């Protein structure tokens, strides 16, 4: 009699089945509907193929399309494999490298053969070949190979990239490949992969994916290595999901902050300063309005604003731990005068190193350490609009969303152990008020200790518990609103709370954070004098709400599709004439609005009013005040508001009062 195993199911029932039973067989035993719907198995919390045997007592959950996150990830992973198989079927001398799932799809990197780099003109043929593979319903079979066999196989097939990677895998590690098609099929295709995968290619919907673009990518992300062709796609569980996603992409393209930034004349970027923003006058108006708003909020919350140096000695970064953990992302400079002669090197190579700061926290500790601090002074909340630099790869830069130079709305709260929960709760409430002012909904997530970290387990237990408690005390730990805990995603020195905003078209952006840190004060020897007269370590809370001004402005532009709230609009009103006879009155209206604090321009050009309306609508001007001969005689204006069909006729004084009130920032409107 064969050995039996107990398989516990999510409903609490237990089934006894022969050892070696697969999850697919369990699903079939439960019912044909589940057997057809099951995509994966979760065995003791680990996702596995349905065909993997169950050899011991286990907790089993069968994953279907209702478990959308897991189902989408494996589906996209399968689409990536089908993409690679299709490309090699069409161009057999192409080498494969890697192809993961992404947040909304998948990609695969290829080393093209004689045909040269792929282009977007190749995508329709690749898509059709992918559909052929899906319709063929090829089984996806997991096999275990030795490292030597795998390396030899890839080398024999001319797959030098895969062979290189396989050769570096640890000895004794279980290596798996997935074969597309029966093991004895002469045209079977295989790839090195951990899995899991769906039972067969036919479980994919041939109408639920689309290849989207082609780009270059370096092998292993190193610009000194070979250039590959990366083919991107988006993949979903069904055709409806794909259609909805493509509609979102169309809307996102209309809202692209780079496109709107050009149309509204807000900023530009260029090669002379990779990853650094050239702000134009209209764009910097938005920045200044946000900066003034944030200053009012932090002033009212008991913060003290400071300014710290851009360049600091590398030894300070060594003490903080950033030099060892973060050096590859830092811009370093020698502490010497460069050689001014034409001959010889610019720098000697013998100087001490300094670095542009990638974050503000070590400098804030140095400010805190000036003088002797008593427990009576705590908490101390130090705030800085701190300009930072991070050495991001050129290929990773993306408009305002990912830059090399950025300014953080950064603050550090130095407090006692007993003050942590209250301070974090106060921050949660401050962040809530700010995000609501901008019309965002959000979810809070707790990022827990990573594998590589500083500090004791006891300190991490305490820090995570304090953040968790503060969110509960603020009434914001609601799973229905997105509260969750993220194992392994904390910083190397502290756990953190993250604020994930949802914009007008349903995209999420991770923006604000607060981190509870006991490591940095210890490494940099920060102390205060306690009530007992002894020196004690403060706890350091790292926090930001915008994250960075650059990225937050980019998010706002896309969230509002350029139609910024009146208080943020670079130009809040334009006075436009219908006829030249009204030029004098238009100038008077413009000056009256400017005197009332409205950012206003006038348009006296000899153009038809409909032309002027279209032009200022493209630039997203909120209000157009149209004046002609009659308006001049009656001292009125015709107001055209962006997005509204009808214009309103108002006396000038009434229009000015209305705009002056509407142009106040949300916090000032509350006070008004």
Characterization of the model:
The radius of gyration is 30 Å and the shape is globular. With 672 residues, the protein is of the alpha+beta class. The longest helix is centred in the N-terminal third of the chain and has 23 residues, at 68-90. Helix 8 packs across helix 16. It is built from 21 helices and 34 strands. The strands form nine sheets. The protein has an eight-stranded mixed β-sheet, sandwiched between helices. It has a five-stranded mixed β-sheet with strand order 2-1-7-4-5, with helices on both faces.
Residue ranges: pLDDT <50 for 5 or more in a row? none
Number of strands: 34
The number of helical runs is 21
Alpha-beta classification: alpha+beta
- Spatial strand sequence of the major β-sheet: 17-21-22-29-26-25-23-24
Distance between the termini: 83 Å
The main β sheet shows up as: 8 strands, mixed
Write down the overall mean pLDDT. 92
Q: How much helical structure, as a percent, in the residues?
A: 25-40%
Radius of gyration: 30 Å
Strand content: 25-35%
| Bulk shape | globular
Summary tags:
single chain; 672 residues; alpha+beta; 8-stranded mixed β-sheet; 5-stranded mixed β-sheet; 21 helices; 34 strands; 34% helix; 25% strand; globular
What does the secondary structure layout of this molecule look like, with pairings?
Elements: E1 4-8, E2 14-18, E3 21-22, H1 23-30, H2 32-37, E4 40-43, E5 46-48, E6 53-54, E7 58-63, H3 68-90, E8 95-96, E9 105-111, H4 123-135, E10 140-145, H5 147-156, H6 160-167, E11 175-180, E12 189-192, E13 209-218, E14 227-235, H7 239-255, H8 257-263, E15 267-268, E16 278-279, H9 281-300, E17 304-305, E18 311-313, H10 314-320, H11 322-326, E19 332-334, E20 353-356, H12 361-368, E21 380-389, E22 405-415, H13 420-437, E23 441-447, H14 457-473, E24 484-486, E25 496-502, E26 508-517, H15 519-523, E27 528-529, E28 535-536, E29 539-544, H16 549-559, E30 573-577, H17 583-595, E31 600-603, H18 609-618, E32 623-627, H19 629-634, E33 636-641, E34 648-651, H20 652-662, H21 666-671
Parallel strand pairs: 1-7, 17-21, 23-24, 30-31, 30-32
Antiparallel strand pairs: 1-2, 3-6, 4-5, 4-7, 8-9, 9-14, 10-11, 11-12, 13-14, 15-16, 18-20, 19-20, 21-22, 22-29, 23-25, 25-26, 26-29, 27-28, 32-33, 33-34
């Amino acid at each position: 009699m064969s050995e039996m195993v107990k398989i516990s199911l999510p409903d609490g029932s237990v089934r006894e089945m022969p050892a070696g039973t697969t999850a697919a067989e369990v699903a079939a035993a439960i019912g044909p509907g589940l057997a057809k719907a099951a995509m994966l198995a979760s065995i003791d919390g680990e996702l596995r193929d349905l065909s993997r045997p169950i050899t011991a007592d286990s907790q089993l959950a069968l994953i279907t399309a209702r478990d959308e996150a897991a189902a989408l990830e494996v589906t996209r992973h399968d689409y990536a494999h089908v993409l690679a198989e299709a490309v090699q079927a069409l161009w057999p001398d192409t080498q494969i490298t890697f192809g993961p799932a992404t947040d909304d799809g998948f990609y695969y990197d290829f080393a093209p053969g004689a045909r040269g780099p792929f282009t977007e003109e190749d995508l329709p043929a690749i898509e059709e070949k992918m559909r052929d593979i899906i319709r063929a319903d090829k089984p996806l079979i997991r096999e275990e190979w030795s490292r030597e066999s795998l390396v030899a196989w890839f080398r024999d097939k001319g797959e030098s990239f895969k062979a290189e990677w396989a050769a570096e895998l640890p000895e004794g590690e279980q290596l798996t490949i997935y074969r597309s098609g029966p093991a004895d099929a002469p045209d079977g295709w295989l790839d090195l992969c951990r899995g899991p995968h769906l039972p067969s290619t036919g479980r994919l919907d041939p109408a639920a994916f689309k290849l989207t673009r082609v780009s270059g990518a370096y092998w292993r992300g190193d610009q000194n290595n070979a250039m590959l062709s990366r083919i991107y796609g988006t993949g979903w569980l069904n055709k409806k999901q794909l259609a909805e996603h493509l509609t979102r992409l169309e809307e996102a393209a209309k809202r692209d902050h780079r496109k709107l930034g050009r149309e509204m004349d807000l900023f530009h970027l260029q090669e002379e300063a990779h990853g650094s923003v050239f702000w134009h006058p209209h764009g910097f108006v938005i920045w200044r309005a946000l900066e003034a708003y944030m200053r009012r909020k932090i002033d009212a919350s008991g913060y003290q604003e400071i300014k710290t140096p851009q360049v600091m000695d590398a030894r300070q970064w060594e003490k903080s731990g950033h030099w060892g953990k973060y050096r590859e992302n830092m811009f370093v400079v020698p502490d010497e005068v460069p050689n001014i002669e034409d001959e010889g090197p610019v720098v000697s190579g013998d100087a001490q190193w300094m670095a542009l700061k990638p974050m503000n926290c070590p400098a804030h500790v140095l400010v805190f350490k000036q003088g002797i601090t008593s427990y009576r002074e705590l908490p101390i909340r130090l705030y800085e609009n701190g300009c930072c630099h991070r050495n991001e790869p050129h290929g990773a830069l993306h408009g305002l969303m990912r830059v090399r130079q950025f300014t953080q709305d950064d603050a550090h709260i130095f407090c006692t152990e007993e003050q942590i929960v209250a301070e974090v709760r106060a921050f949660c409430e401050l962040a809530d008020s700010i995000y609501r002012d901008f019309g965002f909904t959000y979810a809070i997530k707790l990022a827990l200790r990573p594998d590589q970290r500083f500090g004791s387990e006891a300190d991490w237990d305490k820090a995570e518990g304090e953040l968790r408690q503060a969110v509960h005390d603020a009434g914001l730990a609601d799973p229905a609103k997105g509260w969750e805990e993220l194992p392994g995603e904390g910083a190397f020195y502290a756990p953190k709370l993250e604020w994930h905003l949802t914009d007008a078209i349903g995209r999420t952006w991770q923006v604000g954070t607060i981190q509870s840190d006991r490591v940095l004060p210890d490494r940099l020897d920060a102390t205060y004098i306690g009530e007992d007269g002894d020196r004690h370590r403060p706890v350091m809370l790292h926090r930001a709400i915008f994250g960075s001004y650059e990225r937050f402005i980019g998010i706002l532009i896309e969230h509002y599709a350029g139609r910024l709230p009146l208080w943020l609009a670079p130009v809040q009103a334009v006075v436009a004439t219908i006829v030249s006879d009204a030029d004098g009155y238009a100038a008077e209206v413009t000056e009256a609005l400017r005197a009332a604090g409205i950012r206003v321009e006038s348009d006296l050009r000899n153009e038809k009013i409909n032309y002027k309306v279209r032009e200022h609508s493209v630039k997203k001007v909120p209000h157009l005040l149209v004046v002609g001969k009659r308006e001049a005689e009656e001292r009125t204006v015709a107001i055209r508001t962006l997005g509204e069909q009808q214009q309103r006729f108002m006396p000038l004084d009434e229009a000015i009062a209305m705009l002056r009130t509407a142009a106040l920032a949300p916090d000032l409107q509350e006070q008004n």
